[in-house]
Amino acid sequence: MTLLDETPDTRYLQLADTLAEAIRRGTLQPGDRLPSVRRCAQTHRVSINTVVSAYRTLEDRGLIEARPQSGFYVRSTLPALKMASAPCGRIEPPADDVLALIDTVFAAQQNPAFTNIALACPQTSDFYPGGKLGRMLSSQLRRQPDLIGQYPLP
């Protein structure tokens, strides 16, 4: 299979979309190993860097994961597909006890002694993409190894 050059997307995005579609259709099942970077580059007639960029894009989308010394695999738990929401029926007003609870929460938030610690440290990758930051840091340190380990005197 080769990629079309006529589309406006870059080749790595075309490849990422092709692989994402294979995952969505079930051609690539959760836990399946993706082709090696070299084999994928040969199959799709693209450069190795294109395949690496496509695989990183799929990692960022949460579809695949890299396993050290092993390769890339389809994640066992895939993100939920975004589907168009169906029109819902009639919405019932909340019960009085729910309204009372909401009033209590809002009143507590107005109290200056109240500290909402739930927002202190979000635990999702949307707020702190550790994997992506790590790759960016590694890339920068490969280009400028003197950034770490040396401190210029003032």
Structure description:
The chain is mainly alpha-helical and 154 residues long. The protein has a domain at 1-78: Arc Repressor Mutant, subunit A (Orthogonal Bundle). The chain contains five helices and two strands, in the order H-H-H-E-E-H-H. The mean pLDDT is 81.
Classification by helices and strands: mainly alpha
**How confident overall, as mean pLDDT?**
81
Helix content: 40-55%
Percentage of residues in strands? 5-15%
Oligomer: single chain
- Overall, the morphology is flat
The separation of the N and C termini measures 57 Å
CATH fold naming of the domain at 1-78: Arc Repressor Mutant, subunit A
**Sheet of most strands:** 2 strands, antiparallel
Number of strands: 2
Determine the number of helices (DSSP H or I, runs of at least 4 residues).
5
Q: Architecture of the domain at 1-78 in CATH?
A: Orthogonal Bundle
Domain HTH gntR-type: 9-77
Keywords: DNA-binding, Pyridoxal phosphate, Transcription, Transcription regulation
Protein name: GntR family transcriptional regulator
InterPro entries: HTH_trans_reg/aminotransferase (IPR051446), Tscrpt_reg_HTH_GntR (IPR000524), WH-like_DNA-bd_sf (IPR036388), WH_DNA-bd_sf (IPR036390)
